[in-house]
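Appendix B, Record 12. Input sequence as logged:
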Amino acid sequence: MEIKVLGTGCPKCNKLEKLVKEALEETEIEAEVKKESDLNEIARAGVMLTPALMINGEIRTSGKVPTKEELKVMITGQ
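Logged structural output:
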């Protein structure tokens, strides 16, 4: 599983990255977490609002920081 946090490094982007890592740890799912801060790459992904979360190439959320529980659902697909 590949997870990308798309954002410029703002506090919300950093919080999303932290919550993703916590959710992965709590669900015991292994994934590669990358942070994308290049605005051209973010725009190329179709993201207009950051922070955004991409899981396996699919944008799952944009413009907000989901709760850890919401992230767990996105990650596990349950």
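The chain has one domain: 2-76.
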